[in-house]
Amino acid sequence: MSGKPKLYYFNARGRMESIRWLLAAAGVEFEECFLETKDDLTKLRKDGSLLFQQVPMMEIDGMKMVQSRAIGNYIAMKYNLYGKDLKERALIDMYVEAVIDLNELLMTHPFQPADKKEQHFATIVDKATNRYFPVYEKVLKDHGQDFLVGNQFSRADVQLLETLLMAEECKPDILAKFPLLKSFKARISNIPTIKKFLQPGSQRKPPLQEKDVPKLMKIFH
């Protein structure tokens, strides 16, 4: 086994994408093992690799880690993306948890039935522009610093950028009323490790297409 973390998931974004983002932001090379069929998932379950019978799973430091939040916390701590003290860590956790809530809405949009899609899209836009983005805009305005917490690059910056870009894929002008978030997006996108991850050919995954949904559902069910 190489020294690189190894990620086990589908060849799609889902709950693994934030983990890919964090590793890339930390400058850590990683390998991926894609689950292509239901048998691939069954094999992992039967050999005891999945503590709770589900992916994502990451092999790192001799462990087979599951649960995306636990994996994210481990990467953040290991690679100095988790603030300098408990108070900063608490802030990072709050900001990240809110981002995850919005990310879940964005992530599940392609899976919505046709008659629910319009309402789901409206919910995404409403929550993004009225609940979540105003908070991050205010944070950046109030402290006037480049990063969300402690004027230091952290997991919160990485995950917010990921979600801002996903939101723009959904609605290109969604940041129109948030000038500080637009500046934040440009600034964080220009950090060398992030810039590299945003280039074509990286391990960043494209948006899920509706035509790919049935294939993923077959692996699950």
Unreliable runs, pLDDT <50, ≥5 residues? Answer: none
Structural class by sheet pairing and helices: alpha+beta
β-sheet strand percentage: 5-15%
Strand order of the largest sheet: 2-1-3-4
Order of helices and strands: EHEHEEHHHHHHH
Can you give the helix content as a percent range? 55-70%
Distance from N terminus to C terminus (CA atoms, Å) equals 31 Å
Mean residue pLDDT: 94
Instruction: Characterize the largest beta sheet: strand count, sense, and whether it forms a barrel.
Output: 4 strands, mixed
Q: Count the E strands.
A: 4
Number of separate helices = 9
Principal-axes shape call: globular
Whole-angstrom Rg: 18 Å
Give structural notes:
It is an enzyme of class 2 (transferase). Keywords: Transferase. Belongs to the GST superfamily. Alpha family. By secondary structure, this protein is of the alpha+beta class. It has helices at residues 17-25, 38-46, 68-78, 86-108, 114-143, 155-170, 179-189, 192-197, 213-220, and strands spanning 6-9, 31-34, 57-60, 63-66. It has a four-stranded mixed beta sheet, covered by helices on one side. Strand 3 and strand 4 (63-66) form a beta hairpin. Helix 1 (17-25) runs parallel beside helix 3 (68-78) and helix 1 (17-25) crosses helix 6 (155-170). The radius of gyration is 18 Å and the shape is globular. The two termini are 31 Å apart. The mean pLDDT is 94.
